[in-house]
């Protein structure tokens, strides 16, 4: 029997301010591209810190190690700034997002997470590592993204963002020319999720909610 592998996302959960912005853009995109996904309980607005393929049998140990790093970084004290839209192209469509400026504390936490997660990771996987792929033909693109997350999306290449939905590239090209009013927000928690279509956070594996008074 083949070893069970899970595609995970160690992510930060934004507060209500960011969620409201994300939901508004998601509704807009759904209006022009109804086949796209809605932000809901199994498509959580989130900020990816690290994506990896890991051995499913080691998920509990991985979550314990990640939790210690996250707690010691005190992300509940961070104030973050959203400053533009972007999208990742996929054939004639794209996955849009709201981009956030990384901070030194975030990058330091990411670096530590890379180290503690390394013993549990594998280089690649199949579609089975993801949660119920409604678009299995996009599986290879997802696999490649997670497999190359290090080094392509960490350190100096880290560009945190909240994915907000799917639309045609023509529509998204026009949206990116619109003025973007920067806003600040904080974090409501951190989690480990199993990844799904378009890199969405589909199944929660472990959560660390932050105190509202933090």
Describe this structure in words.
- The chain is 31% helix and 32% strand.
- It has helices at 16-32, 59-73, 104-117, 139-147, 149-152, 169-175, and strands at residues 5-14, 47-55, 80-90, 93-100, 121-122, 161-168, 183-185, 187-195, 201-209.
- The protein contains six helices and nine strands.
- The N and C termini lie far apart (46 Å).
Radius of gyration: 16 Å
Strands of the widest sheet, in order across it, are 5-2-1-8-9
Fraction of helical residues: 25-40%
What's the helix-strand series? EHEHEEHEHHEHEEE
Give the overall shape.
Answer: globular
User: Which blocks of ≥5 consecutive residues have pLDDT under 50?
Assistant: none
Strand content: 25-35%
Structural class: alpha+beta
Largest sheet: 5 strands, antiparallel
User: Strand tally, please?
Assistant: 9
* Mean of residue pLDDT values: 93
First-last Cα distance? 46 Å
Secondary structure tally, helices: 6
Oligomer: single chain
Short structural description:
The chain is an alpha+beta fold and about 210 residues long. Helix content is about 30%, strand content about 30%. It has a domain at about 5-80 and about 105-160 and about 185-200.
Descriptive labels:
single chain; 214 residues; alpha+beta; 4-stranded antiparallel sheet
């Amino acid at each position: 029997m083949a070893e069970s592998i899970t595609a995970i996302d160690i992510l930060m959960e934004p507060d209500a301010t960011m969620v409201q912005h994300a939901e508004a853009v998601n509704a807009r995109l759904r209006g022009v591209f109804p086949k796209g996904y809605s932000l809901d309980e199994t498509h959580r607005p989130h900020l990816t810190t690290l994506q990896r393929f890991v051995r499913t049998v080691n998920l509990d140990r991985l979550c314990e190690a990640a939790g210690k790093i996250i707690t010691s970084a005190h992300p509940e004290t961070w104030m973050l700034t959203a400053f533009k839209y972007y999208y990742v192209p996929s054939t004639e469509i794209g996955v849009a997002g709201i981009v956030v400026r990384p901070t030194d504390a975030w990058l330091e936490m990411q670096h530590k997470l890379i180290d503690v997660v390394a013993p549990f990771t594998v280089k690649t996987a199949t579609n089975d590592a993801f949660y119920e792929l409604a678009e299995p033909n996009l599986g290879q693109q997802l696999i490649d993204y997670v497999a190359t997350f290090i080094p392509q999306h960490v350190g100096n290449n880290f560009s945190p963002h909240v994915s907000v939905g799917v639309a045609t590239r023509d529509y998204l090209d026009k949206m990116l020319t619109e003025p973007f009013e920067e806003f600040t927000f904080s974090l409501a928690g951190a989690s480990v999720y199993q990844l799904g279509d378009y890199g969405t956070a589909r199944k929660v594996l472990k959560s660390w909610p932050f105190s509202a008074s933090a």
